[in-house]
Structure formats: C-alpha cells, structure tokens
Q: What sequence folds into this?
C-alpha cells in the first residue's frame, strides 16, 4: 500500500492534480468569468447576431459594413434552439451574441431576469410609440427590453375559391357565420375538414386559443394575471370548447392532433385540404400559399377581417424583437446594428418591397409605420395593404399589461391541456381547471 | 577492482534503471493526461456541479439561489407530468432495450454468413447510426404522418386499414412504442456490429464439435452462440439502456410537448429551459444520471461474462 507522503509525491498524483487544476481553470473560468471587456467602439469590430430568421442578402449586410465599419456574423437558429441558448448563456453569465432574439412572449421573463440591457438610453420609448404599432409588447414598467424586429399579427385566412365553390360568396364577419360556413364547406363535400387548427402540444396551439378568445370578446388573463377563463360563459372557456368541438365534429382533420402550426399551413392549407385558418400568421400568403413550389392554392387564399362575436374582431400581435444580452461584447456596435435594422427602407425591403432579392425569408411585416407605408406603396407583396389595415385598426397585444414573467409555463399548461382535451384524454372543464390551477400556482 | 568501485557501479546502474523506469512511467501518465483532463472537465466537473446545484433553489425568475435540501426532489415527485414521464421512460427502456437486443442479435446472426454484397448490406445497416436524432425524428414524422405518411399508405394498400390513422398522440403505449422504434432504428446498427464482432470471435471448431455431437440449430444458438456472445450483448444492452433512458430528440420532434409520450429528458428540458427552474432541472439530471449508472452496472453484472477460447 502506498503511504500518504509517497502518494503525494508520486507522478500519478501530480498528473491527476495538474489535470484537475487545468480542467477547473479551463472550464471553471469559462463558466464563471464575467463578460470580456466591453468595447465601446462602434467601428472596426465584428458582432455576432443570433436570430431566428435567415440572414438578409449579403449585399445589404455589406452595405451596413461599408457605412459603419462593423462586420456582422449572422447566425440563423431555430426559434426553440435559440431560446435554449439564450437561457443557458445568461444563466452561465457567458458571452453568446451581441444581438439576439427578444420574442414578445419573453419580455416579462427578461424584465425580471435582467438578461438583456435596457435600450432606453439608445431609443426614446415615448417617441417610438407613434412609429411602432407593437412597441408596447417590448416595454415593461418603462423599461425597453428589446426593439420590435417586425410586426406580426394573428390573422384569419380563407381559401376564397373553396368558399365560392360552396356557394359562400360573402366573407363571414361573425364567428357564428364563420362556423356555419365551415359546416357548409364540409357538408357540401368541398373540403372534408375545412378548418386548420394545429393541435400538437406546442406554442401555436396556445396562440390560437388566445386569438379565438379575443374574437369572442375577451382575454385569457387580467391585468394582474388572474385567469379570466374559468367561467363557462367566459370567452376563454367558450373558445376552448369551440376548438375542441371543431376537432371532434370533424371540421378539423384528425391528423391535426400531431400538427404544429407550420405543418398545418404547409400540409393542409397550402394543398387545399383545409379552407381556412382562423389564427394564421401575417405573411403566410406571400411566403407559403402563393409560392408555387409549396402550394396548390396560389392566388386562392386571402386575409380577411377576423370574425368576432358580433363583427370583425381584434388581431393579436406576436412580434419578434431584437435586443442586446448583458454579456454582449460590442454594445455600441450592437446598437448601431439595431438602428440600421430599424430603418424604414430596410424593414420594407426585408418584407419584399424591393423585390425578392432583398427579403429575409419568412419576414412578416415591417416593424414601424414608415416601413409599413413603403411596403403598402410598393404593391409587391400580396395582401400587404389589407394587413397594414389590420395592424392599424385591429391590432392588439395578447396581454395588455405585457407577457407575464412565467409565460412559458403558462403556455405549456395551455397547449398540453388543450391537446389532451382534443385527444379525448380530458374534458374541456378539466383542461380549463388545470390551466387555471397552474396560473394560480405561478402567481403565488 | 575494489569492492567500493563495484558497489558504486551497481548503485549507479540501479539509479539509472530507476530513472528510466520513472521516465517511462511519467511518459505513460503524460499520454493519458489529455484524456484525464477531458473526462474531469466534461464529465466529472459538471457532475459535481450538478450534484451540488440539485440541492439548491436556482430559479431565474425567483432569485436568489439558496440551499433547499431535498426540496427540488420533493417538487419533482409531486408533479404529475414528471411522474408520467418516469412511467413513460420505463416503457422506452422496455421497448428500446428489448427490440434493440432482439433485432441486433438477429441481424448479427444473418450477417455472420458470407454472401454476395455482404459489405454493401453492412454499410447500409450502419447508416441510421450516423444520422442525428432530430433528422431521424423528421424522417419518421413523415413516415407516420396521418395525412401523407408512408406507413398509412402501405397499410391501406395492404387493406390492413380502411382509412388513414393517427398513430402518435392518442394512445400512450402506441405513441411510446412508435417513438421508441425510431430510436431502435438508430441504435440497432451498433448492437448488430457488437454482436457480429462477438460472433466472429467464436472459433469454428466449437460449432463443428456441436454438429458432430448432433446439436440442433436452436441448441447451437441457445447453448453455444448466446453464451459466447455475452460480452457483446452486455455492451449492446448498456448502450440501448443509456440511450433509451435519455431519449429526447425523437420525443421532441414526434410528440412536441404532449405528456402522452413525454420522457424524463423532455421534462428536464422543459423544466430547465422553458420554466427556467434550473435547480429542479439539475435534480432531474442527477436522477437520470444515478438511474443510468445503477441500471447500467446492474445490466453489466447480470450479463457480462469474460469469454476465453
């Protein structure tokens, strides 16, 4: 047996100790080091931009570089992956990117966690209000957590050709008429399952419920984040019952239990297997339904005012934003980049006003009114004018008081229970009760 | 030569031998040092941190961090969704390990025979192993698709179903089995290769002797082949066990966030990165690690036997 003193002086001990120290230094420092020295330089640096959108055309980024001297390294990540990276990097206090995604649903969370630098010192919230229709989604108690990167709405789309084929020549403006029209489409055999609701347990299902609740004249949470959907006569309760009933009665295909939002748009609506999406995304006509390689209904689908309880309803906003993580290395350059992204001409170009060469793929609408006007005036994007009208006249935030900090937990409870109710694993009453119980627990 | 000179030379020779031996020993340690650093940094260090943090309240939405003892574990076991994921993971292990071993052994036995194009078949068999789990999930979501899926199309053309079916999402066991199949498809190639390597190490004389003694095909399999490939089977079992216990990609792609076929790892992901409750996430990870280590060691103890010829 090796004595303690021999072991302490042995080569094995030295190697093990060296390895342990090296690994602790190497990885410990990576995990706990404070952000690298911040550069206040806004020129001659390279910034890392991690966004859930594909990069703009190289020529546009090159123009930004020639104007500012800032090089942009744009990483396109899937939305879910990006949120995981933001959380992991922030929790580990590690550099991740200089500019990244601030989704509307994460604003409450980032306000509490302080993972992003407040942008108030770079942008005036008061003056932005007149230019940005959805700025309130990014502000909490006077703190500007991110800047809107686009304007995005939950909108209703219908396949006009299918509606006409069923003898439905006027656009439904009330939910009762809309439901009747869907039943007519089904009973006349025009479309076997005319409505697309993505019932997979994912975010798209939650937002569908919020939009339908808004159409029924309500909202899901109060200003103090109390559940407003527990009473069977409340809009939220009725909206969930309507969705589950639409599934069980065959207005929605059985397959939708497995479909997330984009699967439904691309598999059903784009191929004429559904005739309407009640809560579609603004921009889907231009990016999916009117793209011949992806669609067999080119020119048939249009945006309509969302049918409500007694007339056109509100369209809830679900905009993407951009912000600067606390661990960013080049803050000044990041601010310059955000300002460039927000320029009305660039915003309009990203959405297609300058032709298909300059678009950011799947980009919905410009974040500000200057960009929206340029887009509508260009006449190059299908349905842009009607979308701008919806933004200005019917747009509303999902949560007027801003998304709660625990929004992801809430949404998780919504989509898992709503999915289970459609699958027949629980009743609507029990799904509602489970969601309310989660909200109460999150509030306590 | 005087006695003292001899003695000096002997001492010098001994010292030189000792130095050489120490140099060679040091060289050995230097060679393994990078691996040691790698293991310490990427396995041991995070495990130690995870173990400590599993007993802490670390929630980005409700700071500050503080010690909570077994609080995270109590919360985990009182959460019905997480309890459901434990049960589901048990099913993933049953299906994953069972099917991988049966298929891996069967393919190993088939590929042991020499036939034309065997090399090509081997290359094709190994392909699924090389694909990332998410890619496989996407491929199989197309196979299972209730509107355009290949599986529906095949079953309908064989008149086994009258209309297209929804395979995943409604029934727990069916959803888990079909999700598990995707992973089995991925890990069976490695199990096949492990079994095949073990089969090829069995000397032909053993089979010849059995044949001379009049052993039937089944007796040869049961009494000779299976006992002699136990080392390969043991490693294949551990591989299937570890991957089934930690199944995530396939569940996430095919099942989204539904609890019907959720797994321990998908719940860990949602708790940690969606709920931002890192403390409970660490506790779940620690539980997964402990269960994986205990079951793997148990499987090795039961299955592994040193085989010498």
A:
């Amino acid at each position: 047996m090796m004595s303690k003193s021999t072991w302490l002086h042995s080569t094995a001990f030295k190697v093990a100790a060296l390895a342990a120290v090296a690994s602790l230094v190497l990885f410990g420092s990576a995990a706990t080091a404070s952000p690298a020295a911040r550069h206040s330089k806004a020129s001659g640096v390279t910034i890392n931009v991690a966004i859930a959108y594909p990069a703009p055309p190289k020529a546009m980024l090159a123009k930004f570089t020639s104007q500012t001297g800032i090089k942009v390294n744009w990483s396109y990540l899937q939305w879910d992956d990006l949120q995981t990276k933001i959380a992991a990097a922030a929790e580990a206090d590690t550099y991740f990117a200089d500019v990244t995604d601030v989704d509307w649903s994460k604003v409450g969370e980032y306000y509490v966690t302080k993972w992003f630098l407040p942008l108030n010192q770079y942008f005036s919230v008061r003056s932005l209000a007149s230019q940005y229709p959805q700025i309130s989604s990014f502000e909490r108690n006077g703190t500007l957590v991110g800047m809107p990167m686009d304007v995005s709405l939950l909108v209703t789309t219908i396949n006009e050709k299918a509606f006409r084929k069923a003898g439905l020549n006027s656009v439904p403006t009330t939910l009762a008429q809309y439901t009747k029209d869907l039943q007519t489409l089904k009973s006349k055999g025009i479309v076997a399952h005319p409505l697309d609701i993505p019932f997979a347990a994912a975010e798209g299902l939650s937002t569908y419920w919020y939009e339908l609740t808004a159409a029924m004249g309500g909202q899901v949470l109060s200003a103090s984040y109390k559940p407003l959907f527990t009473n069977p006569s409340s809009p939220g309760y009725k909206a969930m019952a309507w969705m589950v009933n639409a599934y069980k009665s065959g207005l929605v295909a059985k397959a939708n239990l497995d479909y997330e939002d984009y699967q439904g748009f691309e598999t059903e609506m784009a191929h004429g297997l559904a005739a309407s999406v009640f809560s579609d995304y603004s921009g889907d006509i231009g990016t999916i339904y009117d793209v011949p390689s992806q669609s067999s209904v080119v020119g048939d689908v249009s945006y309509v005012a969302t049918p409500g309880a007694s007339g056109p309803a509100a369209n809830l906003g679900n905009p993407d934003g951009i912000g600067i993580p606390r661990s960013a290395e080049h803050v000044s350059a990041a601010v310059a980049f955000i300002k460039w992204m927000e320029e009305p001409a660039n915003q309009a170009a990203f959405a297609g006003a300058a032709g298909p060469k300059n678009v950011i793929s799947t980009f919905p609408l410009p974040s500000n009114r200057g960009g929206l006007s340029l887009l509508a005036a260009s006449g190059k994007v299908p349905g842009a004018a009607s979308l701008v009208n919806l933004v200005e006249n019917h747009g509303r935030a999902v949560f007027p008081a801003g998304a709660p900090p625990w929004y992801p937990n809430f949404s998780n409870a919504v989509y898992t229970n709503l999915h289970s109710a459609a699958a027949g694993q629980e009743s609507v009453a029990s799904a509602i009760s489970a969601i309310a119980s989660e909200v109460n627990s999150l509030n306590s | 030569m005087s006695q003292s000179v001899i003695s000096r030379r002997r001492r010098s020779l001994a010292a030189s031998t000792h130095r050489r031996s120490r140099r060679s020993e040091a060289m050995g340690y230097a060679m393994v040092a990078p691996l040691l650093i790698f293991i310490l940094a990427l396995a041991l260090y995070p495990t130690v941190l995870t173990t400590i943090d599993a007993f802490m309240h670390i929630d980005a939405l409700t700071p500050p961090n503080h010690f909570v003892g077994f609080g995270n574990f109590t919360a985990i076991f009182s959460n019905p969704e997480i309890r459901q994921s434990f049960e589901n993971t048990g099913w993933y292990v049953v299906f994953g390990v069972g099917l991988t071993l049966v298929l891996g052994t069967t393919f190993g036995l088939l590929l042991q025979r020499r036939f034309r194009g065997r090399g090509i078949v081997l290359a094709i068999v190994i392909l699924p192993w090389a694909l990332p789990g998410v890619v496989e999930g996407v491929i199989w979501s197309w196979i299972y698709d209730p509107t355009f899926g290949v599986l529906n199309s095949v079953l309908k053309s064989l008149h086994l179903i009258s209309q297209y079916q929804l395979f995943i999402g409604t029934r727990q066991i069916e959803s888990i089995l079909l999700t598990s199949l995707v992973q089995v498809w991925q890990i069976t190639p490695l199990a096949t290769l492990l079994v095949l390597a073990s089969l090829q190490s069995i000397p032909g004389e053993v089979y010849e002797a059995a044949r001379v003694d009049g052993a039937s095909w089944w007796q040869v399999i049961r009494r000779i082949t299976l006992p002699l490939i136990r080392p390969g089977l043991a490693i294949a079992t551990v591989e299937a066990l570890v991957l089934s216990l930690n199944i995530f990609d396939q569940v996430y792609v095919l099942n989204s966030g539904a609890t019907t076929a959720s797994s321990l790892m998908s719940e860990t992901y949602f708790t940690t990165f969606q709920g931002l409750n890192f403390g409970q996430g660490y506790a779940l990870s620690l539980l997964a690690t402990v269960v994986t280590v205990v079951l793997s060691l148990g499987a090795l103890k039961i299955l592994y036997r040193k085989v010498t010829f």
Remarks:
- Chain A has 18 helices and twelve strands.
- Residues 217 and 235 of chain A are 6 Å apart (CA to CA).
